[in-house]
């Protein structure tokens, strides 16, 4: 006994010494510390926060690494011209738009592509939503996983030795116990919210305790349990909206974890991608016409520069002959340098507009060529029907489709929330077959239950239970607040939907006004251009004869250049207005023959879908079946647009269309095409 006491004291002393050595205040002086390596002061860090870089190996795309320096007005070498049509431009843009870009964000400090890249739309967004697993962002597969069968199993073994203060427990005074517990279950949740579980338990116990039938025994059971909600959270409708009530976590998950809500979230993600795609197509076409206008402005600027140079030379010759004054020659020289500066700016604008177009369609900043629009802008007047366009806008605009999906989601969640404004009453039942024996599966003793699985097979020892489980949150304060919250959110969503329809109507009205303004302005500027060219045409002979002041010709040349720029600016505005009309109507993708389709599935999915389709195709039709709950989606827009204005009645004919005369044909002008050398001048 004394020896044990000394050992305990030695252990305590050693533990106290170890703790004292580990205490910071008891560390030896650093002068007594020796290191094996050579001292390197640059490894010392006097701060915890510093600028660092992620260990990410990135390979820039070939559009970045393979690009040449951008084109500038300093270049003197000939630049190859690549004529490109609008259809080809859009096709290239779609092929290179895994991440969708916008024109308005370029060169802005808050460009979302650089500032908040996580919100940039891409072709992967629908798939990301489809595979979401987090609460509030679950995809269909994650929502369906709630109905997957679950297998749980465990095996735990152990041994225990305990002194017994009784001679009647064991012969040695020490109770030895060997125990092993095996538990297994197979459970599944059904679409109506009910759950079933098949359980199997085996408990082994071996002991040296006296007065036992067997020194070691196997006891356990095989059972089945079933639980079904009867009030709150009951039924298929609640489960498909909110998910199984048995897996909810109160205010954390809410009633938005069901398969239908996940499917609607996928549709909303597709609508977001659809919207971004429409914006991209609109921006590409606008950028295409902006580049066309830049080329036109450059052609006008070069023509004005050449005319100014010719006028200056004529004036200089007339000065030597005494016909012109030095002031007139200086004025001609001033105008020449002004037009030369304008041509340089116009040439630079071509390069800037081309960079913007290249960015939108995913091409390198400089691939050795310069893009030039091949298509001519539309000059025929379009007078669309207001009511037909408004009907298309209210039907095809993706923003309305997205808001309606949001509204439908809230309406379904309200149905599920109302189900929770009642007590929780669950039907519970169970049945089990008990087993017991000294052996697990073999061996027998006459007249004794010596085989565990044999006793289960005989099913002589059974048990069952049947009843209900009741839970009542008196007052339903949280559930009623949730219902009221969804009612308010639905009211807001309906108001927002109405305001969106008003907004779309106003946008379409402005598009109509812009369409009429651009065409009539182009028509007026065409007449102005014809008049300005006639003015220059009839002044030039008089200038050569010296009968008219040089100032009149110089001003006429400037007016001609301004009229030509104004005409093509109006014509480009008209084509951009046509593009905007298609966008405001929601038909811009269909107008450009662009349709969305999902990527390929695995071959097994197509075989499974074909099997289900064959089953439905060979089914017998009946009018006695009713969809409960009602379908939450359709293959076509629901409802219609009904106008109260009498002009919207059938038979109302719009004004016939007209067409702009070609000013080049009227004046017998040279074609628009710019030679490859012109861009170098």
What report would you give on this structure?
The protein contains 17 helices and 8 strands. It is an alpha+beta fold and 681 residues long. The strands form 2 sheets. It has a 6-stranded antiparallel beta sheet. Strands 1-6 form a two-stranded parallel ribbon. β4 (195-207) and β5 (216-229) form a beta hairpin. α3 crosses α8 and α8 runs antiparallel to α14 (550-585).
Quick rundown:
This protein is α+β, with helices and mostly antiparallel strands. It is built from 17 helices and eight strands.
List the helices and strands and how they pair.
Blueprint: H1 2-22, H2 62-65, E1 81-84, H3 86-95, H4 112-115, H5 125-130, H6 140-144, E2 150-163, E3 174-189, E4 195-207, E5 216-229, H7 236-242, H8 259-320, H9 326-361, E6 370-373, H10 386-396, H11 398-419, E7 424-437, H12 452-458, E8 461-471, H13 477-545, H14 550-585, H15 588-591, H16 603-617, H17 663-667
Parallel strand pairs: 1-6
Antiparallel strand pairs: 2-3, 3-4, 4-5, 5-7, 7-8
Q: Report the average pLDDT across residues.
A: 85
Shape: elongated
> Can you count the beta strands?
8
Q: Kindly name the structural category.
A: alpha+beta
Number of helices: 17
Written as H for each helix and E for each strand, in order along the chain, the element string is HHEHHHHEEEEHHHEHHEHEHHHHH
Q: Beta fraction of the residues?
A: 5-15%
Radius of gyration (CA) equals 42 Å
Helix content: 40-55%
**Main sheet specs:** 6 strands, antiparallel
Low-confidence stretches: 650-658, 663-681
- Give the N-terminus to C-terminus distance in angstroms: 112 Å
Strand order of the largest sheet: 2-3-4-5-7-8
């Amino acid at each position: 006994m004394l020896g044990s006491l000394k050992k305990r004291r030695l252990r305590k002393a050693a533990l106290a010494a170890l703790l004292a050595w580990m205490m910071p205040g008891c560390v030896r002086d650093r002068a007594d510390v020796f290191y094996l390596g050579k001292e390197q002061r640059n490894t010392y860090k006097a701060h915890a926060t510093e600028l660092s870089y992620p260990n990410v190996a990135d390979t820039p795309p070939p559009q970045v690494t393979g690009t040449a320096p951008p084109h500038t007005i300093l270049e003197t070498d000939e630049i190859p011209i690549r004529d490109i049509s609008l259809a080809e431009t859009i096709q290239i843009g779609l092929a290179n738009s895994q991440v969708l870009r916008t024109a308005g964000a370029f060169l802005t400090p808050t460009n979302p592509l650089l500032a908040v890249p996580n919100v940039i739309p891409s072709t992967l967004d629908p798939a990301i939503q489809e595979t979401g697993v987090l609460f509030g962002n679950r995809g269909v597969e994650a929502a369906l996983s709630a109905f997957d069968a679950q297998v749980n199993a465990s095996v735990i073994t152990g041994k225990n030795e305990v002194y017994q203060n009784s001679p009647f427990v064991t012969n040695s005074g020490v109770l030895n116990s060997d125990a092993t517990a095996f538990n297994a279950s197979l459970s599944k949740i059904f679409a109506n919210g009910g759950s079933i579980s098949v359980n199997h338990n085996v408990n082994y116990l071996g002991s040296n305790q006296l007065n036992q039938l067997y020194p070691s025994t196997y006891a356990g059971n095989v059972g089945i349990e079933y639980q079904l909600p009867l009030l709150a959270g009951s039924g298929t409708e609640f489960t498909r909206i909110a998910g199984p009530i048995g897996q909810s976590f109160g205010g954390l998950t809410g009633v938005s974890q069901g398969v239908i809500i996940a499917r609607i979230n996928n549709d909303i993600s597709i609508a977001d991608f659809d919207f971004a795609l429409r914006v991209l197509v609109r921006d590409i076409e606008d950028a295409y016409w902006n580049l066309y206008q830049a080329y036109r402005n450059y052609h006008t600027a070069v023509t004005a520069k050449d005319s100014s140079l010719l006028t200056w030379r004529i004036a200089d010759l007339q000065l030597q002959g005494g016909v012109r004054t030095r002031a007139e020659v200086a004025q001609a020289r001033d105008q020449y340098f002004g037009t030369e500066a304008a041509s340089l700016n116009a040439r630079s604008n071509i390069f800037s507009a081309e960079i913007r177009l290249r960015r939108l369609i995913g091409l390198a900043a400089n691939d050795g060529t310069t893009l030039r629009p091949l298509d001519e802008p539309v000059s025929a007047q379009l007078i669309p029907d207001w009511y037909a366009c408004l009907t298309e806008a209210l039907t095809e605009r993706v923003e309305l489709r997205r808001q309606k999906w949001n509204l439908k989601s809230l309406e379904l969640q309200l149905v599920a929330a109302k189900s929770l404004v009642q007590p929780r009453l669950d039907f519970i039942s169970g049945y089990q077959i008990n087993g017991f024996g000294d052996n697990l599966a073999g061996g027998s003793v006459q007249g004794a239950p010596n085989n565990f699985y044999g006793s289960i097979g005989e099913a002589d020892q059974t048990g069952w239970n049947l009843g209900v489980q009741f839970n009542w949150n008196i007052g339903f304060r949280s559930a009623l607040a949730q219902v009221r919250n969804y009612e308010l959110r639905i009211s807001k969503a309906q108001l927002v939907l109405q305001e969106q329809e008003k907004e779309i109507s106003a946008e379409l009205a402005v598009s109509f006004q812009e369409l009429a303004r651009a065409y009539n302005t182009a028509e007026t500027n065409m007449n102005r251009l014809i008049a300005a060219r006639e003015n220059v045409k009839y002044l030039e002979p008089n200038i050569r004869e010296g009968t008219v002041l040089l100032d009149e010709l110089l001003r006429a040349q400037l007016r001609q250049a301004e009229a030509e720029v104004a005409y093509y600016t109006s014509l480009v505005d008209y084509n951009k207005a046509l593009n905007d009309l298609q966008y405001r109507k929601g038909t811009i993708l269909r107008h450009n023959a662009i349709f969305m389709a999902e990527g390929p599935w695995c071959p097994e999915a197509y075989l499974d879908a074909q099997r289900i389709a064959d089953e439905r195709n060979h089914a017998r039709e009946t009018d006695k079946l009713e969809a409960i709950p009602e379908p939450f989606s359709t293959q076509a827009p629901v409802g219609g647009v009904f106008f109260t204005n009498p002009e919207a009645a059938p038979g109302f004919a719009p004004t016939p269309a007209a067409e702009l005369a070609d000013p080049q044909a009227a004046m017998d002008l040279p074609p628009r095409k710019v030679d490859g050398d012109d861009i170098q001048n």
